UniProtKB/TrEMBL annotation:
Cited SUPFAM superfamilies: Creatinase/aminopeptidase, Creatinase/prolidase N-terminal domain
InterPro entries per UniProt: Creatin/AminoP/Spt16_N (IPR029149), Creatinase/aminopeptidase-like (IPR036005), Creatinase_N (IPR000587), Pept_M24 (IPR000994), Peptidase_M24B (IPR050659)
Protein name per UniProt: Dipeptidase
Domain Peptidase M24: from-to ranges: 158-359
Pfam families, sorted: Creatinase_N (PF01321), Peptidase_M24 (PF00557)
Organism expressing this protein natively: Streptomyces violascens
Segments forming domain Creatinase N-terminal: 18-150
Gene3D superfamilies: Creatinase/methionine aminopeptidase superfamily, Creatinase/prolidase N-terminal domain
């Protein structure tokens, strides 16, 4: 099996640039700074991912005109100092028994408004607010939705590798037996294939057979797959810290004309969404392009979710391809295009690729055949 070498790690300079950009964007948005909790934002900005996220306060404070400071519990400080981005920031540790909010407060503007990671613990935010009653807070996704949305060349290379690995997994899954096996068994095969092709983490392995395919939230269950079933396969995870997410819908044996027709419509919708991609185009226009095809074919009420979501250090993040999202596509953004039709009690069809924005339009990071595969 061909394995690609691991990409060069991000450097302190990479993290320094990301933190500086975040502080600048915050200032542009009228914020005094950004408070970053352990999770995807902290990984993106510093490379630091605590092994266990506990009730002890860890927070990165970014403010314009001030060096980045990472407040950490003393017992976590050695690990934090090992993060690649640690060279670009100051560590300030606090020991058990001390008040972590009193340690953090001097770093903050006493009446400032701060962007806060979506996943910060409410307990910590309330602690800071109590210490500094004049401060106010806004969710980072609301304040700086595009903070992680534009990928640089190194991030793009990781997303490409993750997409290629997911494609390899698909190439093998269509050769396994479906008829007579449970959805969970095929899902386990998919997970094993993602790991075989270099993923470190599997986030989801949807196997929606027959009527289960009509529920976009169905993961995989005890249903035994039968000949004649449509099967939605939607799978992804992280490879070298960046995400994959692709969907193909296959059929066990020969499909009926009606099944083929629905699949053709979704495939055409996915293509229309892809062709709408261009720098400067509003995100909602990608959704509209895909949705128009499905609506024109008479299935509009059966396409019950947005057309796509961004992907990076997580498998679901801004930008969202959804009606009402007027922000423009920017060179280097990466997101899914995944229209679907869900016929309750019968079957579902979804086709999904990750796409990146280039000067010439979209470029797919998933390149397996989008025609309906016939499986056994
Ligand atoms: Zn069928
Ligand atoms: Zn997906
Ligand atoms: Zn997706």
């Amino acid at each position: 099996m061909p394995t690609t070498p691991a990409p060069a790690p991000f450097t302190a300079d990479d993290y320094r640039a990301r933190m500086a950009r975040a502080a600048r964007s915050a200032a542009d948005a009228g914020l005094a700074g950004v408070l970053v909790a352990p999770g995807p934002d902290l990984v993106y900005l510093t490379g630091y991912q605590p092994t266990a996220i506990t009730e002890r306060l860890t927070v990165l404070v970014l403010a314009a005109g001030q060096d980045p400071v990472l407040v950490v519990p003393t017992l976590e400080a050695p690990d934090a100092a090992h993060a690649a981005g640690a060279a670009a920031l100051t560590l300030r540790d606090w020991t058990d028994g001390k008040d972590p909010y009193a340690v953090t407060a001097p770093l903050l503007d006493v009446d400032g408004r701060f962007g806060v990671s979506d996943n910060a613990w409410a307990m910590h935010l309330l602690g800071l607010q109590k210490e500094l009653p004049g401060t106010s807070y806004v969710a980072l996704t609301e304040a700086l939705p595009m903070l992680r949305a534009v990928k640089d060349a190194h991030e793009l290379a990781r997303l490409e590798a993750a997409g290629a690995a997911a494609d390899e997994a698909y190439g093998e899954i269509v050769k396994v037996r479906f008829a007579g096996r449970k959805e969970t068994e095929v899902a386990a095969d998919l997970a094993a294939l993602l790991m075989k092709y270099g993923h470190s983490q599997v986030d989801f392995t949807v196997v929606g057979s027959g009527p289960n395919g009509a529920n976009p939230h169905h993961e995989a269950g005890d249903r035994t797959i039968e000949r004649g079933d449509m099967v939605v396969l939607d799978f992804g995870g992280l490879k070298h810290g960046y995400g994959s997410d692709t969907t193909r819908t296959v059929h066990v044996g020969e499909p009926s004309a009606a099944e083929q027709r629905v699949h053709d419509v979704v495939r055409e919708a996915q293509q229309a969404g892809f062709e709408a991609v261009k720098p400067g185009v509003a995100c909602q226009d990608v959704d509209r392009a895909a949705r128009a095809v499905i609506a024109d074919a008479g299935y509009g009420e059966y396409f019950i979710h947005r057309t796509g979501h961004g992907i990076g250090v997580t498998t679901h993040e801004p930008p969202y391809m959804i009606e009402g999202e007027e922000r423009p596509l920017v060179l280097g953004m990466c997101f899914s295009i995944e229209p679907g039709i869900y016929l309750p009690g019968r079957f579902g069809v979804r086709i999904e690729d990750i796409v990146t924005v280039t000067d010439d339009g979209g470029r797919r990071l998933n390149n397996t055949d989008r025609a309906m595969a016939i499986v056994e």
